[in-house]
Amino acid sequence: MKVKTILISQPEPKVENSPYSDLEQKQKVKIDFIPFIHVDGVPSKEVRQQKIDLSNFTAIILTSRNAVDHFFRIAEEMRFKVPDSLKYFCQSEAVAYYLQKYVVYRKRKIYVGKRTFPELMPLVKKYKNEKFLLPSSDMLKPAVPKQLDKIGITWKRGVFYRTVVSDLSHLEKVFYDVVVFFSPSGIKSLFENFPDFEQKNTRIAVFGNSTIKAAKEHGLTVDIKAPTPETPSMTMALEKYIKEHNKK
């Protein structure tokens, strides 16, 4: 079956010349972006109940843009002036670049990993004497605390935001040829919104092993997978699949 419509279960990228725009134009498909999950900030009162005093930390580990936004939101709500001496350990260049929304980059001590959390660990390990704060969602991969404990640093997790299932009732009678998922939370959202969901002719695309596992646990057939050596990005995986199935 040909692919004409694709639903991406994430917000639309806020960049010009997104790879999805290129895919849409090249392959003559329609792509919609509808977030299946969204983030709600945890009130500062709840953060205090977690026994977190921001003045106790000399370094912060930032794994996402959400972590950046909600750390500075909590600091503002607590009337805490973030010191210039605070060290920032960013999981990727994208996170470090986003940090410029809140700090003057050249005046701060910012350390940047390559892309994944394990790749950031050697950098963190070099600063064992720091006291690290990890602002996170209520949903944290079990591997993250294990890796931080393993390198023997002083650290504390703070739940600063929550991952919440979005209301998708407006999609009840809408059909897409391909639905794309990037996290187990997205799969969870699909079945919380539509407990009786039947895949039928919908092709399922997933990014990452944990998402593949969640899809299979919910009885979904996974048609498109990324990353792979041949297709390291989701857009490449989609393009390959479309080219194969849209041949006349």
UniProtKB/TrEMBL annotation:
Tetrapyrrole biosynthesis uroporphyrinogen III synthase domain segment(s) = 26-235
Superkingdom of the source species:
Bacteria
Positions in coiled-coil regions: none
Under the heading InterPro entries, the entry gives: 4pyrrol_synth_uPrphyn_synth (IPR003754), UROS/Hem4 (IPR039793)
Q: Which Pfam families match?
A: HEM4 (PF02602)
CDD domains documented for this protein: HemD
Q: What is this protein called?
A: Uroporphyrinogen-III synthase
